[in-house]
Amino acid sequence: MKDSKNQLNIDRIQKELDRIMNLDFVTKSDKKIEQYQYLSDLYKGKNKGIQASGLIPFNKPENRSTCKLTRKKVDEIRKKYIPNRYGKAKLAKEYGVSRSVIYRILKGQSWK
What we know:
- The chain is mainly alpha-helical.
- Helices cover 39% and strands 7% of the residues.
C-alpha cells in the first residue's frame, strides 16, 4: 500500500469556495505533480483569476534569503575587478564572500 491515497488535495481553481466537494484524496506523487503544475502555471501567467500572493520567483538569486549580494553589487564587482591590482581576494574581503564566488561571478557561471 505504498501508493495509498492518503494526501488531501484542494482544487486550486475553486479554492476560494469553502466546500467539501473541493477536497479529494490523492497519492503523494500525484499531489507533487499537481503542485508543480500549479506553480509553473502561475509563473507562466496562466490561471489569471488566481493571485500568486506570497510567491517569489526563486530563479532570481537576489530573491533567495541566503543571498549576500544584489544585482547592483555584482555589477560593481565586475567593474572594479582589475587583474593583479584589484583582484578576487580583495573583492571577496570587501563584499564578504569567498574568492570562488567572485571567480564564478567574473566567469559568468553565476549572476548571468
